[in-house]
Amino acid sequence: MPLNFTAIDFETANSSPASACAVGLVRVRDGEVVATTGWLIQPPPGHDEFQEWNVRIHGIRAEDVLSASTWADQFDRLCDFAGADVLVAHNAGFDLNVLRRASEATGGICPPYRSLCSLQVARKTYQLDSYRLPVAAAAAGFEEFAHHDALADARACAQIVIDAARRAGAADVDMLAELLSLRVAGTPARTPERAVA
């Protein structure tokens, strides 16, 4: 199988994981970026307060999303872009939790995506003082990007996985995880083969 996946990054309006206000998506096929997209999102009602701390990080304000699609209105678009791909994110637990919690907040059902964390991949691939996204991306040859812009961050984490797969000689995401002693989340654990008597 080829190195195919979709990198994803969310920005949130506040500390609630359901408060998605921006998403970036990067499609990788055969180890190459072939499509990118990103957009602003109106966070779900009850999760739509923009806290000063978050605004300082990503620069997105409540007025910026007034004409943006709601979570429910844009969710099919997001899922159509990702398809059945493994989702890759830097600290994937956070981004997959945003997907689940924003879906729950709007009465939707989140598909059971498999995921791989580029932060864990970076820790197994590079010797760095910090594994923050800008530092790990620079080690992968992706420098000078607008950190906390959702699309730029998704592009950076895609590059980490592409570079790590090249270094490890991995043909696909599952092989990369196996070579680095990681697990693609959402993948059923292998049952040991029983010895034949």
Quick one: biggest sheet?
Answer: 6 strands, mixed
Low-confidence stretches: 191-197
Radius of gyration: 17 Å
Shape: globular
The level 1 CATH classification is: Alpha Beta
Counted by DSSP, the helix tally is 7
CATH architecture: 2-Layer Sandwich
Q: Please tally the β strands and state the result.
A: 6
CATH superfamily: Ribonuclease H-like superfamily/Ribonuclease H
User: Which structural class best describes the helix and strand composition?
Assistant: alpha/beta
Which fold does the CATH topology refer to?
Answer: Nucleotidyltransferase, domain 5
Gap between N and C termini: 34 Å
Q: How would you summarize what this structure contains?
A:
By secondary structure, the chain is of the alpha/beta class. Helices cover 38% and strands 19% of the residues.
What does this structure look like?
This protein is an alpha/beta fold and 197 residues long. The chain has one domain: 2-Layer Sandwich (Nucleotidyltransferase, domain 5). It is 38% helix and 19% strand. The protein has a six-stranded mixed beta sheet, with helices on both faces. Helix 4 packs across helix 6 (150-168) and helix 5 crosses helix 6 (150-168). The two termini are 34 Å apart. The relative contact order is 0.19. Residues 191-197 have low confidence and may be disordered.
Give short descriptive properties of this protein:
single chain, 197 residues, alpha/beta, Nucleotidyltransferase, domain 5, six-stranded mixed β-sheet, 7 helices, disordered C terminus
